[in-house]
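User: My instructor asked us to take a sequence, write out its structure as C-alpha cells, and then describe one feature of it. I'm not sure where to start. Here is the sequence I was given:
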Amino acid sequence: MSITFLVWLLCCLAYTIIVEEITALIMGVRNKYDLLMILGINCITNPLLSTIMTQTEAYGLNSMLSVLVIMEGLIFYIEGKMFAKYLDYKNPYLLSLILNLASFIVGGLLLQYVPIYRIFGKLMV
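Assistant: Let's start with the prediction itself. The C-alpha cells for your sequence are:
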C-alpha cells in the first residue's frame, strides 16, 4: 500500500467526518457520545468503501456504479443498525440515510470540481 493511497484514504475520511458531523448537528444530534460514535463508525466504513471503489475503478464505469450502489446500500444498513444500537436518536435509519446522502452528494461535487481527485488519481495509477 503506497503512501499516496494512505493519504487519499485519510482525505476521504476527513471530508466524510466533517460533512457527516455537521449534518448530524443540523439533524439535532447534540450528545457528544453520539457524535463520537458517528465519527468512529465512519472510521470503519469509509476506508472500506474508499478502498473497494479505488480497486473497482480499473474495471470501468459500469462496474464502479454497480459496486457503489451495492456498497452504499450496505453501509446505510450497517450504519443504521449501529446507530440503532449505540445512539440515542429517534430514527437511526433516517439519520444514516441523510448522513450518507450528504457525504455522497458533497463528495460527488468535490470529485467533480476540486482538482485534488485528478491529482491523486494520476498518482495512484
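For the description part of your assignment, you could build on this observation: The radius of gyration is 15 Å. Try explaining in your own words what that tells you about the chain.
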